[in-house]
Amino acid sequence: MARCGGGRLTSQASQAARAEAAFRRLDPETHAVGSFPMYVLSMEAFMNLTSAKSHRDLQEEGLLVKYEEHLGNAIFVSHQWTGLKHPDPHFRQLSMLQKVMSQLLGSDRPVRSSILYLLALGYSQKIDPREWREKPLLIWYDFFSIPQLEMRKASAAGTDLQNAVHSIPTYVMRSKFFIVLAPPIEHADTGQHLNLSTWKERGWCRLERAACDFLTPNTNILEITRLNHHSVMIPFDCWKLACALASYFPSVFYLHSDAIHLLFLAVCDVFVPKVCWKAVTFACYFLGGQ
């Protein structure tokens, strides 16, 4: 009978509290695994680019800044690389982003969701360009913001790269806006036709998308596929998001080690902190120890 008394409930509540505290310690809001500064490029500097410059080059030119909220609103740009060693060798993706940003910032016309959004969710959504003009804008783009693969030979640079990759969910969470940049482009090395569908197959892109939907659920995602065709991307619901997280290993990776890193990030920095600790707390409370 003692097992049904207050002592058991107290013990279960204590275990639940410990479980919740353990999972909260993994929450990107308070703990970023392998933290690396969030380097961003001002919108003015971005709009003046004529080629995609690397993190190292932009640092040497003094154009990168460590992001702080008082500097303005950060934009996280998710995209698929169009070359094996360079994200945009012909500057096609980024030139389109420049043109779309010029259109968006120079207009009061809202960007609306597609008819598919309405059919899927039963309501429409929009992005108000005026919100994008409230504060200065700063761009987070992987090639600009983190050390690149060719720098892995140097141990310090390799550590910076790994820490930056592990911090991607935190970068997403700190960004006010999220852009999916996926225009139809031919891959410079493989000749593959890249578009929104291939973006969805990329493991890293899935992680970034999942982080946005889980960690910043009120953020509307701006989907850019053509110069005059951009809309609000349909958000995941919880079940679809769980399926997406479960499907990381069938995703497309150029490096097998990337799949391992991504699974770690998905579990530790995205899925576990926001969902699993609640389930564990519930289980510990009702099924807990003696």
Could you characterize what this model shows?
This protein is α/β, with parallel strands linked by helices and 290 residues long. 48% of the residues lie in helices and 14% in strands. The longest helix is centred in the C-terminal third of the chain and has 32 residues, at 256-287.
Strand content: 5-15%
According to DSSP, the number of beta strands is 11
Mean pLDDT: 75
Helix fraction? 40-55%
Task: Provide the gyration radius in Å.
Answer: 21 Å
How many structural domains can be distinguished in the coordinates?
1
End-to-end span in angstroms?
Answer: 12 Å
Treating each run of at least 4 consecutive H or I residues as one helix, how many helices? 13
Q: Given the C-alpha coordinates, what overall shape results? A: globular
The succession of helices and strands, N to C, reads: HEHHEEHEHEHEHHHEEEHHEEHH
Please identify the structural class as seen in this structure: alpha/beta
Describe the strand arrangement of the main beta sheet, using strand numbers.
2-1-6-3-7-10-11
**Low-confidence blocks of residues:** 1-13, 15-34, 244-290
**What profile does the largest beta sheet have?**
7 strands, mixed
Protein name: Radial spoke head 1-like
Organism: Cladocopium goreaui
Per-chain topology:
Layout lengths: L5 H19 L14 E4 H5 L7 H6 L3 E3 L6 E7 L12 H14 L5 E2 L2 H7 L4 E2 L1 H4 L4 E4 L1 H4 L9 H12 L1 H7 L2 E5 L3 E2 L6 E2 L1 H6 L1 H13 L5 E6 L2 E4 L5 H9 L9 H32 L3
Helix pairs in contact: 1-13, 9-11, 11-13
Brief synopsis:
The protein is of the alpha/beta class and 290 residues long. The protein contains 13 helices and 11 strands. The protein has helices spanning 6-24, 43-47, 55-60, 92-105, 115-121, 129-132, 142-145, 155-166, 168-174, 196-201, 203-215, 238-246, 256-287, and strands at 39-42, 64-66, 73-79, 111-112, 126-127, 137-140, 177-181, 185-186, 193-194, 221-226, 229-232.
